[in-house]
Amino acid sequence: MYGWTGKILRIDLTHSSFTVEEPPASLYESYIGGTGLAGHYLRNFITLPYDHPDMPLLLFTGPLVSTKSPASGRMSIMSRSPQTSAVCDASVGGRFGTQIKKAGFDGVIISGASNAWRGVSINDGSVTFADAEAIRGESTSRVAERVNAASTAVVGPAAENGVLFASIVTDGHYCAGRGGLGLVMAAKKLKYIAVNGSGAPGVFDEDELAKAREDIFRLAAASPALKGALGISEFGTGALYDLMHSRRMMPTDNFRATRFEAAPSMNAHEYAQRYQTKKTGCAGCHILCKKRGAGGQLIPEFETMSHFSALIGNSDIDAVVEANRICNEAGMDTISAASTIACHLELTGGSISPAGLVDILNDIAASRGIGVELKAGSYRYAKKLGRPELSMSVKMLELPAYDPRGAYGMALAYATSTRGGCHLRAYPISHEILRKPVATDRFTFSGKARIIKIAEDMNAVIDSLTACKFLFFAASLEEYARAFHGVTGVTATAHDLLRAGERIYYNERAMNAMNGFIADDDDLPPRFFADSGTGGDGIDVRPIPRGDFLRARSDYYKIRGLDENGMPTEQKCGELGIPWKRS
Fold this sequence. Notes:
Layout: E1 8-12, E2 17-21, H1 25-31, H2 34-42, E3 57-60, E4 75-80, E5 87-92, H3 96-102, E6 107-111, E7 118-123, E8 126-131, H4 140-147, E9 151-154, H5 157-160, E10 168-170, E11 174-176, H6 181-187, E12 190-196, H7 206-221, H8 224-227, H9 232-235, H10 240-246, H11 268-275, E13 278-280, E14 290-292, H12 302-311, H13 317-330, H14 334-348, H15 354-366, H16 371-374, H17 378-384, E15 393-394, E16 397-398, H18 408-416, H19 429-432, H20 448-465, H21 477-488, H22 494-514, H23 527-530, H24 546-560, H25 570-576
Parallel strand pairs: 1-6, 7-12
Antiparallel strand pairs: 1-2, 3-4, 3-6, 4-5, 7-8, 9-10, 9-12, 10-11, 13-14, 15-16
Helix pairs in contact: 1-2, 2-20, 2-22, 7-21, 12-13, 12-14, 13-15, 14-17, 18-20, 20-22, 20-24, 21-22
């Protein structure tokens, strides 16, 4: 095979053993890799509790990983979410995916559970198991330092202490954050996975790959959003901070407002000046969207930057950096952590100081004091206090830093996302705010149902190849179809890839249906239909029209091939080659 290694590593923690599987080529062509292949292997176990020994933790690369295809250093981690009970995956950067591919595998399936804390080391084709009891309770960076491998995936104290939004941290600060994947790993008593690889996948046509690579580089260089003076390469994802502020859609005070008065002093430029930032990024990437301060500080991503400031009413920039550090070291999702704190502040009528923010995050990670309640996430916490509507979440997953009243495509995308309140399944911000590939009216649902469906399919492909979504601000599946053929030798048009993406996403909808998710779960918190945002500067941020939203959701169901209740159909499953299993 070209691109793919043709081998998947299966690790059984119960018996400290491993085997190697060689799937048929047809499976690769149907599900590509990354999220697609992981979803295929998750399907038969999706109804099990997340902490059942048979529930797999899946770490999958794609065919473009460890090749010269641009931004190809990513991987997907997938399982059933402890936080939402829905299907959950995360696209993770760093070096881990590249090292897995160099070790000779397209993916790793981890099942079983140890009776004591263990570590797993993958060295090319061999696997060794180590006692990790001595490093129980240690931070993610400390574990990575002690293991000293080419790449590591680690859980921190938060996962050990039962935080439902615990993350898996690769290479010190690349996080599989959403949905509690770290808790799945901790349930297996697996503290770390280390990998060292020395091989390289075969490439079918180096010249064709080089031409596709050149086209993608040219398009990226011409993109203001990526390589412009105020773009992501220069300022990281924090470049979006001013945009959300100016468009009056920055979630503030637990989404009660959409404008944060302190925002001009909390933007990416301020971080760059204060910390003298330098560029870094994932293996195989030339955008380098990660930023580090001259003193080694990790500069937060946009969602973290926004939620630890506007969402909780904090105007101390150093406190945002410290909150980000605590979450990385403990292994917690920053979006859910900040959103849960914001919900707590609204419920109690309180405010928070920089010192108080540090204390409450440490309490959550350690499961002590108020952290015992907050570690369950905002929905369970608010429901326990009789106010579930104050949790700004979809399917119990907290919303990121885009207020849906300011972008109706985003509102629909949040609702239909298979993993819950997620901006990355469709990312309509690209056209509603960044105007890529074309501008759409952000205050209408007109045409959005079809746009969201196509974008979900496309992003499923991106997460299966696996590539970086940011490059698709400039490039398209046409360029990546050529890269895909150059790497694998498999002829596929952009339309063929989209069809695979439809299969991958529909499989996720089917898995959620098997766990009882219905149309009522494809909805937003009532606040967005009842309350206005913060208008001004000629922008009127009105409540989302409920009727228009429901019509758009109904249109989406039809276009997606679901029934009127949002459920998969036997006919569509057959059309896509997905096993039919009614919930």
